[in-house]
Amino acid sequence: xxxxxxxxxxxxxxxxxxxxxxxxxxxxxxxxxxxxxxxxxxxxxxxxxxxxxxxxxxxxxxxxxxxxxxxxxxxxxxxxxxxxxxxxxxxxxxxxxxxxxxxxxxxxxxxxxxxxxxxxxxxxxxxxxxxxxxxxxxxxxxxxxxxxxxxxxxxxxxxxxxxxxxxxxxxxxxxxxxxxxxxxxxxxxxxxxxxxxxxxxxxxxxxxxxxxxxxxxxxxxxxxxxxxxxxxxxxxxxxxxxxxxxxxxxxxxxxxxxxxxxxxxxxxxxxxxxxxxxxxxxxxxxxxxxxxxxxxxxxxxxxxxxxxxxxxxxxxxxxxxxxxxxxxxxxxxxxxxxxxxxxxxxxxxxxxxxxxxx
Amino acid sequence: xxxxxxxxxxxxxxxxxxxxxxxxxxxxxxxxxxxxxxxxxxxxxxxxxxxxxxxxxxxxxxxxxxxxxxxxxxxxxxxxxxxxxxxxxxxxxxxxxxxxxxxxxxxxxxxxxxxxxxxxxxxxxxxxxxxxxxxxxxxxxxxxxxxxxxxxxxxxxxxxxxxxxxxxxxxxxxxxxxxxxxxxxxxxxxxxxxxxxxxxxxxxxxxxxxxxxxxxxxxxxxxxxxxxxxxxxxxxxxxxxxxxxxxxxxxxxxxxxxxxxxxxxxxxxxxxxxxxxxxxxxxxxxxxxxxxxxxxxxxxxxxxxxxxxxxxxxxxxxxxxxxxxxxxxxxxxxxxxxxxxxxxxxxxxxxxxxxxxxxxxxxxxxxxxxxxxxxxxxxxxxxxxxxxxxxxxxxxxxxxxxxxxxxxxxxxxxxxxxxxxxxxxxxxxxxxxxxxx
Lengths: 358, 437
Prior knowledge:
The complex is a heterodimer of chains A (358) and B (437).
Chain A: H1 2-13, H2 15-24, E1 26-28, H3 37-57, H4 67-76, H5 81-108, H6 117-139, H7 144-157, H8 164-172, H9 179-211, H10 217-222, E2 228-230, H11 231-256, H12 279-290, E3 294-295, E4 298-299, H13 300-316, H14 318-321, H15 328-354
Antiparallel strand pairs in A: 1-2, 3-4
Helix pairs in contact in A: 3-5, 3-11, 4-5, 5-6, 5-11, 6-7, 6-9, 7-8, 12-13, 12-15
Chain B: H1 2-39, H2 51-57, H3 65-68, H4 74-77, H5 83-86, H6 110-121, H7 124-127, H8 139-143, H9 146-152, H10 161-165, H11 182-190, H12 207-213, H13 215-222, H14 231-235, H15 248-253, H16 257-265, H17 267-275, H18 281-284, H19 314-345, H20 351-370, H21 376-433
Helix pairs in contact in B: 19-20, 19-21, 20-21
């Protein structure tokens, strides 16, 4: 019976080819193999996001009058609603954290070198989409903190030269953050971004599959043959251990630190004291906060936005700027750049949470 | 010559026609003005030179005093000159300007002041020229005041309009510099109502000190709440006198509406009147009203019930029911509140509990007013309803705390399952990768 179904599916889907790919795929084993798991971890957390997001959609209402009340309803009246919402929120943060670890490990292991330039670019695009998911999702509960954090975020977007004002108006859907902004962000969060993310994810995974795992230059230079591990089941089972650990972490965080709802957004209220964006935007926020109002007659915020933009462009272009072999002075310079960026981001993020209050 | 005569006749004709046309145009306006004047004379607004001030400024002592602050006087600001009150001819630079035959009136005697002010301030039609919603002074009301009565008796040391409002530098009452601005009234009254000025009279003179320390004085002077009562809010201003004993609850009830209403309907009011006690003042005092506290309810400590009721009286028996119920209700609110705080700190959603507790607190405020009915039935009903709300808030808080514990247990169980699965996976991987013989 099972064999009959398998044959039927085989005839229509060509599962044999997939099985062949799975059997053929392997992963190099060396002292940096640990960092290979972070891509899978990001994907797993994305899956959690999709699943919990769909459950939240069953009750969430995207309007300024009902959004806050519907989230409160989810948290207080829907069975395990509090858990679903907390997992959704915590998984979002963990996913961005995992994506950042994945990005830095890829950068420092120079995994972007030819022919994996597009893998890097699609990965960066996916990270950008993850940040957009976080930014758009943060406003959806329509609470006071989200309202003002979004306002600050969009105001910063407005400082981008030439297109900033248009972008800010586009995001807000007008001059101010209103129920229209909420509806717009909801649309981005559940339709536009998932579509783009799915496409990007398919392309990224295809490229990883096509080019296989990259070896860091230090492993390549050792000159010894690198042992390999079958992806199925050895690497996948190890992945599953990590995913289970992430699931346990989510259960722990959701039960011990359930995501708060706070007060309903009131556009006429004054901004809460010490308002700050989500942690993954904190380093940019701190950079702009520390800049003087004017530098050589130019607005400090404008210089900050341009500097961050320029840094992002250099980061994005790393595969083309680095030495293709990953060796030599240029390669060392790029590695140093990666370390500086990592220290800068971690340091400035900590400054927001632990540093002196402005 | 003939031509000149023709020109002159023509000119006279043109002027006559122009005058006729002007008369036709102006006549309705003049007529309307005359009608208004008949009902109420329009204010004599001074736009030209005031010779009164020109001369009096150069004089000395009391003759120049009126000119000192007159420029900021509300009358001057509104365009009224000296002649508005004193008559005479302000355009005449000579002494003849003050000719009594031309209507000049010198400074009025004390007993004439109120009538002089009333000639304008009691005239609604006239006062509406300055304010569409004017305060209309009433001589009839003024005559009810102790001040007016004393003046009529010939007492020279009693206040009339100018003693409180000033004379030639009168400011509107809403001006914070005015002596009758709410924040200054008590001090203005105390200019006369002090031990030295009132020497030889039976009027108490410690009111200012008592009022300043009272909840009302504190609210007005320290917190700047201009709606808090000063002397005039309880005694009246132009008809100032001590309220009658039976009127005290009505006076207090002007602001404390619900309490005043319930007290007015209570049997306690009648009893107090019968015993010659002064309503609200019996428990709350008058000038030195302290912030009311819940400790005032009952016989123990700061309780005021024992001031009238003996321990075996019906009032004491009612208090034995009300007091524990009241404090029990407060304890229920406090308990629910502390549990809700704990639940909130643990990150639980407690909005419905908070809403019920808010309603319970509203009931507590209402109950404090209901106590002034001195009737067991409505007090017990309010107690039961409020306590029910506090209990429901507590149930909500306990449910949230129970939920929190359940979440912990759920988390622990899920972690056990997850750790077990991880252990199984690790064992599986190791088993799979163990080198076989």
